[in-house]
Amino acid sequence: MLADLTWPEAGHRAAAGAILAIAVGATEQHGPHLPLSTDTDIAVALCARLAAARSDVLVGPPIAYGASGEHAGFPGTLSIGQAALELLVVELCRSATDTVDRILLVNWHGGNVEPLCRARDVLRSESRDVRVYLPRFDGDPHAGRSETGLQLALTPERVRGELAAIGNTRPLVELLPQLRTAGVRAVSANGVLGDPSEATAAEGAALLEDLGATLLDRTRRWWPEPLPERTGE
Ligand SMILES: [Zn+2]
Asked: What's the 26 CA to ligand 1 centre distance in angstroms?
C-alpha cells in the first residue's frame, strides 16, 4: 500500500520498477441491499489480489468518486461527472509519473469507462505508460447476482440480504438508450438491474478469482514480471 510508505520507501520501490495500481470505483446506489461503496470495494479487491500475486505492484489510494450521473435521484449517489473524472485521472497520473514509470487503473463502474479511456489516451500521447483494466464478465449489470455475490464474498456483514429484491432484468443493450437519457431511476424503481436473489458468496468468490486471474494475465502481457534476483555465486 503506497499510503503506508514514507517518501524514501516509495522512492526505493519506484527505483526497483514498481507498477502503481489504482482502483477506480464510484459512490453510488446499489439497490436497497448493497452499500454505496460496492464498485470501489470490488476494484480495491482486484488491486489487492494483483499485489498479492506480484511483488512489484504498489497499490495507491482508490478513486472512490466516479461518473455516476445515471444513478442520480437515488440518495447517497455522489458523482463528479465525466469531465471532472477525466481531468482528475490525467492530473493524478501526471503527478504519479514523477514517481513511477507504470500506472494501472483498475475500473469497476461502467459510467467511468469513457472518461477513463479519454484520460488514458491523453496520458499515452504524452508518452506516459498508463493502462486501463476494464473487467468483462457474464452477469447482470448492476447490484444483481454478480455484484451481490462479489460483495457477499468480500464483506458479507455489509449485505442486507433480506432486502435483496429483483430489479429490471432486461438485457443492458435494450436498456441503454433509456438509461442514457433518463437514468436508472426511469427503468428500475429499486435501482437494481438484474436479480440478486440467488447470489451466493461462493459464486462471488469464484467470479473474483476469475477476474483476478484475468487481471494478472493482462498485467503480465503489458509488463512482464522481473526475473528473480540471482543469489549465491
Ligand atoms: Zn456496481
From this structure: 8
Q: DSSP letter at 19?
A: E
Give backbone dihedrals phi and psi of 207, rounded to 5 degrees, phi first.
-65, -40
Distance (Å) from CA 207 to ligand 1 centroid: 14
pLDDT band at 225 (very low <50, low <70, confident <90, very high): confident
Rounded distance between C-alpha atoms, residue 26 and residue 37, angstroms = 7
Residues 103, 187: Cα–Cα separation, whole Å: 37
- CA 152 to each of CA 30, 161, 206: distance values in angstroms, whole numbers, following the listed order: 13, 9, 12
List C-alpha distances in Å: 100 to 22, 28, 118, 230: 12, 31, 21, 24
pTM: 0.95
Which H helix or E strand runs over 111? none
Q: Residues with beta carbon < 5 A to ion ligand 1?
A: 39
Among 60-64, 127-131, 158-162, 169-173, which is the least confidently predicted range?
169-173
- Within the chain, residue ranges assigned H as helices are 7-15, 38-53, 81-96, 113-125, 145-154, 172-182, 201-222
Question: What does the pLDDT look like over 25-66, one tens digit per residue?
Answer: 999 999 999 999 999 999 999 999 999 999 999 999 999 999
Q: Which three cell numbers stand for residue 63?
A: 478513486
